[in-house]
Amino acid sequence: MLKITDLYASVAGNHILKGLNLSVNAGEVHAVMGPNGSGKSTFSKVIAGHPQYTVDNGKVELEINGQMTDITPMTPDARAREGFFLAFQYPVEIPGVPTSEFLRASYNAVCRHHGLEEMDPIDFDGFIRAKMKILQMDDKYIDRAVNVDFSGGEKKRNEILQMAVLNPRMAILDETDSGLDVDSMKIVAHGVNTLRTKRNAMIVITHYQRLLNYIKPDIVHILYDGRIIKTGGPDLALEVENKGYDWLIK
Amino acid sequence: MAEDDDKQKKSPAAAPDAYKYGFVTDVETDTAPKGLNEGIITFISDKKGEPVFMRQRRLEAFHHWRGMKEPHWANFHYDPIDYQDIRYYSAPRKKGGLSSMEEVDQEVVKTFEKLGIPLGEQKRLAGVAVDAVFDSVSVGTTHQKDLEKLGIIFCPISEAVRTHPHLIEKYLGSVVPYTDNFFAALNAAVFTDGSFCYIPPGVRCPMELSTYFRINAKDTGQFERTLIIADKGSYVSYLEGCTAPVRDENQLHAAVVELIALDNAEIKYSTVQNWYAGDKNGKGGIYNFVTKRGKCAGHHAKISWTQVEAGSAITWKYPSCILMGDHTVGEFYSVALTNNCMAADTGTKMIHIGKNTRSTIISKGISSDRSHNSYRGLVKIMPGARNARNFSQCDSMLVGNNCSANTFPDIQVHNNSSTVEHEATTSRISAEQIFYLQSRGLNKEEAVALVINGFCKEVFKTLPLEFAVEAVRLLEMKLENSVG
Description:
heterodimer, A: Rossmann fold, six-stranded mixed β-sheet, 9 helices, 30% strand, B: 10 helices, 21% helix, globular
């Protein structure tokens, strides 16, 4: 589904990713953990195509129409339309734009690209309300401006709602657990788990093991200084929880 | 004579900015020599076949103007205007009397078609009556016959001066007298064309009335004059659009618009201003000095201004409401966008005189590149305006780091039963917002449009639908290269 090969990337002249390799198959959930400053957020932004980050070497291949295709030359929106999704660590506010209008515009942009029929506001309303139920979101949500005056928990739920609407094949969740209390985290995790299928894949970026109690990963990677320094099973996350990162770095 | 040899092709200066209305029409013209004096005013008055009172007023205005000084309190600078270096009259040469479409120069008709304003009987826009003004003259008005059946007068103002002199004598200059300001005095002396509307008592105008202003000739100023009278219990929605060719020289546009709403009447006036704004380095563009004012003369009257200001090198414009009658309502909804080196100093004045008068001001300024965008507003509540209410909201959005946004609110309340509220915010369209929206599948243009649309929502929803769509597109186009 996603294959990252020898990826080097920088932002404002600072080299952050230094030869990152990672391969994700359909049906898998991977966790990426790492200490502060290891390059976790850069990793997610580079894969999503943030214009401020430069890919200096390597490639990022996404499965598009059954073919592994290098997406590094593609704009962020083209990646999104091909089934890539990033749940932001810090979702951005868009004043004056109702969430429903934004979501419908996104949904229809993806439909248009795939030659599918666009959804009118009435059908979309029914569609989105069903998704909101899964995340236990209040009906009023969708009339509010995108992320404006949302609490931290509401913002994170809104990210997962967008994921539910766009139904991506490959999603990265960037510290979706940060700023969530335990109850909200359970709801978000439940939402994410409902979206897991054999045909899609996810990478969960997190500092802490606790999210992984609710979203069970198949494979855990430790990111340090811009590359994966260790890969293992779910137990690796528990080990990190107990021992910290130091033993891996030395 | 017009000496343009650049025909209908865009000048090279247009290319980087993609101002799609920047072409010049090659047309034979009747043009006054450069300069301003009594002779020129008499020349204009003669050309228009005006009654004596009109000529007298023009001359009075001219003499008054000569004693006035150009105002310089606005928040921008511009090269001095040489009033003797401007042509005050330019018209496509008549082929016989200019009474029907067939006699209008086909080049002019084609020009308006290119601008999306078909004038021919078959092709005219349904639901919108258009008066098309080309430089100093109106070249055609559509749907006139249909409107006449309802007693609605919609014609070029130069025609109204001849055919309805009593209405003109009574109302022209009654809201904006020539003594009002320097540019209003200039306009009163040399105005050439514009639209006149009269809606009789109790009539709800069934279609949008609109005027499309086109500056074409070189070295020419455009001095439009519009007068709209809504008699008791009537309603009219009026639209105004403007474009001009790309030129390296600055051109002056000094308009006066007067609205009068009698008892229970309502006038809704919408503008999309897209004059040529100059190139990236601030060369060329229209100087837009405009006085727009409405008077709610009768009780329960309402005047609503909506403007989308997206063009002109300089905009100096304060569409205002005088709320004379009791229970009258004034509204001002504005989106002003400046990019490159443009400067806009715009806002409104709400003068509360009658009891229980209400006014609303929603102003959205968007500045990008090296432009300056200022909101300037006056809310004045007179002693007799018991229980008056005003709500003002002035929001600015900055795109990039080299632009500026300013707000100059002036609030004067002369009684203790009134309520005035003022809110202001400044925000920024950020690369992060665009990236966020792009990561959800929207392309960059769609992303910018969504953010701008959200920011301007309260104003756009007051525009007639097709106009709102057009306005969003216009802003999108202007900001295309400014974000990211």
